[in-house]
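Researcher: Go.
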Amino acid sequence: MLVISIQSQVVHGHVGNSAAVHAMQAEGVNVAAVPTTLLSNHPRYPTVRGRVLESSLVADLLKGVEERDLVDEAAVLVTGYVGSADNAAVIADFVERALIRNSKLVYLCDPVIGDDGRVYVADGILEVLRHRLLPAATLITPNQFELELLSGIAIADVEALRAAAAMIATARRIDVVATGCALADTVEGQVETILCEDGLLSRFATPRLPIRPYGTGDLLTGLIAAHLAKGAAIEAAVRLSVETVFAVLVRTQEAGSTEMRLVPLPTSGK
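Model: Structure:
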């Protein structure tokens, strides 16, 4: 079981591959991790060191992935934070080649754009996501703001969410896992992760905790990818992943930490 995971990497904290890789390995899945950025920490800290990697380097690493026949071996391909429009383009090229080379490959696209009403990615990335990466995906994991931005639909209730998911999947089936949802009928004090699987909704609610550590979406996406790689159905993969992320958040809150407490990764459903 192998997952190819293309996203950011940090020295301190748990975002991007620095959140997802450990979680996938803890689930018994091998990971080929390709960085798009190499930073000292999440950019929302007062200082940050490092940089977005050059697209030529990212392209070269992806070429190495192909030369080692990892695309043939992989069950799931994940893309997350890409860093630049040039990186987005070379990653889209790789995704297209990989899906041709391995027709059984599940492509899980986390369209990292922004949150809380704010876009924080570089110019040009949104266009590549909309026109190349999303149309190729099997499953996407946007937060509520990202799904609204990508679909052009304000999401206040389940029907609007279903319509937004349908707007994304215009030419082919693309399942959607919307995270951080607060809809009209969401129980007060809870937050929901909602799977729209071929138009059918599955809702997973957890208490809303008074903490906002970085990387929870990256952790969730990595866990979903791991469960899919092991053969789980999408609904089960999402349910197990939500349970694990919530357990991590509870432990993080108890520790009073600003960064997720991943080690050891809580097990769920076992």
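Model: The chain has a mean pLDDT of 96.
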